[in-house]
Design brief:
The chain has 10 helices and 9 strands. With about 325 residues, it is α+β, with helices and mostly antiparallel strands.
Length: about 325
């Protein structure tokens, strides 16, 4: 990706002067990544990652750094943030936050083999084991995926677009949200929510790091399981229909490392629908209300039905 913000050599040197990480030497931008600005930095003491947040508040970034530190303390493979000389993980440059992270070795693999795929599923389950007991004072500074958030964001998008199509799509989405059954006892924790290949590093065929917790938030632990299923069993560029056999294999592998409770099995159908409706918000301008991608997915799940969905995946 292109850098969103340009940095001079002197600016980067000044930023690194606030850390005990050696003298700044040079910087190389990452071509893979997210909407944030990411660079690999070389100093006299080693290599690091400089991340400049283009669209996050300090509290939102603090949610991320504190959680990553917690994961690292629990031996989870992710990049650790570094504190500056003033004891803070988050610095400010030109009124935007930034963080210096540990540089993790490895390669991004677009099509993981079966062994690498199983490792990602295992590490996802381990992430949920760790995060289910985690609390953060910055939790509300992230968009925590829920019915309420989905409705609020859709209303904002409909108002921004301000067309008859957007208003009708909002009506459809709100009606679909009313059909969801998500009990308060459904297990929640921090989910990563974005297992794009650019966020995963493998080294010598082994899982080495999960990167980019920019979308991580407090939601139903099933949400990440849905993301895994979407990665292989219902890819928009390959699978027109949900591959139930593939989805079941993912769930079986996940359950080897974190057993799903009965209530999670009973409500995976609802969390799956919620994830589709949240995707609808991200692409609210796409398609006519009578026939668009997310509607076709919801209609397909309704055609299968809750009971058959359960039997296919857990029977």
């Amino acid at each position: 990706m292109a850098l969103k913000t340009e940095f001079s050599e002197s600016e980067l040197a000044q930023i690194f002067a606030n850390f005990n990480l050696g003298k700044y030497i040079d910087a190389t931008p990452f071509t893979d990544g997210t909407v944030q600005t990411n660079m690999k930095i070389k100093t006299s003491e080693g290599q690091y990652v400089f991340r400049y947040y283009e669209n996050r508040t300090v509290n939102s970034v603090s949610f991320e750094t504190n959680f990553l530190r917690y994961l690292k303390d629990h031996n989870y493979p992710c990049p650790a943030p570094f504190k500056n000389k003033y004891g803070s993980y988050v610095g400010i440059h030109k009124q935007k936050p930034y963080v210096i992270f540990e540089f993790m070795e490895g390669q991004h693999i677009k099509e993981p083999n079966e062994n690498q795929k199983k490792q990602l599923i295992q590490k996802t389950a381990e992430l949920h084991h760790i995060s289910k007991n985690y609390t953060s004072i910055y939790k509300e500074d992230r968009w925590n995926y829920s019915i309420e958030l989905c409705r609020d964001l859709a209303q904002q998008e409909s108002k921004r677009i301000n067309t008859s199509n957007s208003r009708e799509k909002l009506s459809w989405l709100e009606n679909e949200l009313l059909k969801l059954n998500l009990p308060k006892s459904l297990p929640m924790g921090i989910c990563h929510a974005d297992f794009n290949f650019s966020n995963i590093l493998y080294k010598d065929d082994e899982f080495n790091a999960l990167l980019d917790f920019d979308d991580a938030n407090y939601t139903y632990l099933l949400f990440d399981l849905v993301v895994l299923i979407e990665s292989w069993a219902w890819r928009h560029d390959v699978n027109k229909l949900l591959n139930m056999e593939e989805a079941k294999e993912i769930i079986i592998e996940y359950s080897k490392h974190r057993r799903l409770s009965d209530i999670e099995k009973n409500h995976l159908f609802d969390v799956y629908k919620l994830s589709i409706l949240i995707d609808c918000v991200w692409y609210f301008e796409r398609g006519d209300v009578k026939d668009f991608y997310e509607k076709r997915k919801i209609d397909y799940l309704d055609q299968i039905g809750r009971e058959v969905f359960y039997q296919e995946l857990f029977g």
